[in-house]
Amino acid sequence: MLVERLRALPTAAVSDALDRIGVEGALHGLAPLSNGFRAVGPAFTVRYAPVDETGAGTVGDFLDDVPPGAVIVIDNAGRTDVTVWGGIMTEVAAARGIAGTVINGVCRDVSVSLTQNYPLFSRGRFMRTGKDRVRLVAVGEPVTVNGVEIHVGALICADADGVLAVPAAEAERVVDIAERIERVESGIVSAARAGGALREAREKFGYHRLQTRSRA
Question: Which partner for 98 in 24, 30, 93, 206 could form a disulfide, CB atoms 3.0-4.6 Å apart?
């Protein structure tokens, strides 16, 4: 299963694989609340916008529709002045087996996330609520984060190094390449630890060609 294979791979190897096939998937500026957090699963997409003349807004009502194992991807246009995720949502998501949450914006109630060991990735943390400041405008539609368009079902891979979105159509190819990259890098480390020169090990295993875009 692709999700299981992705769980065994670091985002660094997946990023290198995306580079090799010429697909941009790295979501720059998003980081985990804890370096131990890891989230892998199909994207469930959500988009917010500022409140307007239609009335007040709220956050989180979409949570009842998220399937277990999904990674929630919330686009709040990168805003860092209001939060779109807090303690109640963390508690519910953790209880329902949701794999994690990625926010193009900020979160609050950080201690709850850490206590629940619920993986949160965001642009930072801030306590001011988004209620009556932002409104839910789309669920299950593509969202764009730093120029990367993320569709429902894209595979999200997030760890201490950041967050990636792998298009569903390219997922198997990306995983195959990433696994090969991991094998090559493991071989280099083993050779160097055995007393060989790092330069020679890199040359032997083709290290400098790992991320070179494939012409196949």
Answer: 93
Mutual angle of helices 171-193 and 11-21, in 10-degree steps: 120
Residue labelled with tokens 């190819």? 173
Same domain, 179 and 114: no
Integer-rounded Cα radius of gyration of the chain? 19
For the entire predicted model, the pTM comes to 0.89
- Give me 183's structure tokens: 């094998």
Residue 6 in any domain: the answer is no
For 89-132, what is each residue's pLDDT tens digit? 999 999 999 999 999 999 999 999 999 999 999 999 999 999 98
Q: Strands, E, within the chain: which ranges?
A: 31-32, 39-50, 71-75, 100-104, 120-122, 134-139, 143-145, 148-150, 155-159, 162-166
Domain range for 178? 173-209
Give CA–CA dist 6/39, Å, rounded: 10
- The answer to whether the beta carbons of residues 133 and 56 sit under 8 Å apart is no
Q: Are 171 and 165 in contact (CB under 8 A)?
A: no
Same domain, 65 and 150: yes
